[in-house]
Amino acid sequence: MNLSLPTAKGSRCLRSSSEPFRPRGRQFGSCQWAPKLISSNKKLSLTSLQNNLKVLSCHKQHVPVLEARSIEEIYDALAERLVPAAEKANDLNSKYIVGLAGPPGAGKTTVASEVVHRLNTFLSQKTFTQLDEVATVLPMDGFHLYRSQLDAMENPKEAHARRGAPWTFNPDLLLKCLHAVRSQGTVRAPSFDHGVGDPVEDDVLISIQHRVVIVEGNYLFLEEGAWKEVCEVFDEKWFIDIDINTAMQRVLKRHIATGKEPDVAKWRIEYNDRPNAELIMESKKHADLLIRSVDF
Predict the structure, then answer these.
(1) Cα angle at 21 between 17 and 22, to 5 degrees?
(2) Whose CA, among 66, 266, 278, 281, lies 20 to 30 Å from 250?
(3) CA of 55: how far to CAs of 35, 40, 81, 84, 126, in Å?
(4) pLDDT, tens digit, 9 for 90 and up, residues 180-194
(5) pLDDT: is 243 or 43 the higher one?
(6) Sequence-distant (≥ 6) Cβ neighbours of residue 3 within 8 angstroms
(7) Pairwise CA distance, residues 207 & 134, whole Å
(8) 167 is a domain residue
(9) Is 198 left (phi over 0), alpha (psi -120 to 50) or beta?
(10) Ranges for the Phosphoribulokinase/uridine kinase domain (predicted)?
(11) Residue 58 falls within a domain, yes or no?
């Protein structure tokens, strides 16, 4: 991966409490109501909104909380939120970069892909043209350390057992990639092959027409080392707020579905996944928007 670092710095990681984010929509007391504008199942419309309202309830320290009756409504509200950013990016080299974090089992990958799909579909229908995609997803998974790098650590057995912990990723490479996305317009980034268990170089294309990039991953808002610099790159930070027990039940099903014995899957959750999730939940204080999880 041949990525160069730009000189420009990203936005601040923490939003000042004196300058709260104010989502679009009708005010109700000190809270906000945002309308549902986008549907994935029929032609998209900016009309007939009265019966399709989202609740954006107020969270302490002025961080809005997005709540909805269904996951489909959450997808729609998030896509609508990004329409202005996608439309105002006149410079093809400019990028609006959104960080989407949350613990394992929160549904980050699904949320990111659904929001991108709705945003691309809506803008294409709005202009009555077959536009190139204006939004895309960059997963953090591609920045895992290679198995060979884990083998070279002081305790390889522990390193493999804890794979998925922050120190089993390469945040410096992720930071370099994000700076390149910001400064170069077109970048190739790694993906992750779960069958092989290693990254795949240059497998994700961020191209010049992509004005909105959603980066999804566990540790995007951590405060330690290079992770803090990663957090500072994002124009906007979303966090999926989910009960840890619910998230771990989803992860357990995922482990079993991939062939792990139930006892092994439960051990991995208690030894690795749950401690990681607890650490990740602490980082939600850096979010600009909390997304209240609902069942898929």
Answers:
(1) 130
(2) 66
(3) 9, 20, 13, 20, 25
(4) 999 998 999 999 998
(5) 243
(6) 173, 176, 177, 179, 180, 187
(7) 9
(8) yes
(9) beta
(10) 97-294
(11) no
Two tokens, residue 242: 């989910």
Q: Are strands 289-292 and 236-241 parallel, antiparallel or unpaired?
A: parallel
> What is d(CA 74, CA 11) in angstroms, rounded to the nearest whole number?
25
- Spatial separation of the C-alpha atoms in residues 8 and 181, rounded to whole Å: 12
Query: For residue 157, what is the domain's CATH number?
Result: 3.40.50.300
Strands 31-35 and 53-58, sheet pairing: antiparallel
DSSP secondary-structure letter at 19? S
- Does position 100 have pLDDT exceeding 60, yes or no? yes
Radius of gyration of the chain (CA): 19
Give me the helices (H) in the chain, please.
71-88, 108-127, 147-151, 156-161, 171-184, 225-233, 244-257, 262-268, 274-282
Q: Which two tokens stand for residue 16?
A: 């000042």
pLDDT at 241 > cutoff 90: yes
- Give residue for tokens 């320290």: 61
Residue 256: domain span: 82-292
The answer to whether position 30 is within a domain reads no
Q: Is residue 87 part of a domain?
A: yes
CB-based contacts of 139: which residues, under 8 Å, 6+ apart? 109, 112, 191, 192, 204, 215, 216, 217
Determine how many CB atoms are found less than 10 A away from the CB of residue 257: 9
- Mean pLDDT taken over the chain: 82
H-helix or E-strand containing 237? strand 236-241
Work out the angle between the directed axes of helices 274-282 and 244-257 (0-180°, nearest 10): 140
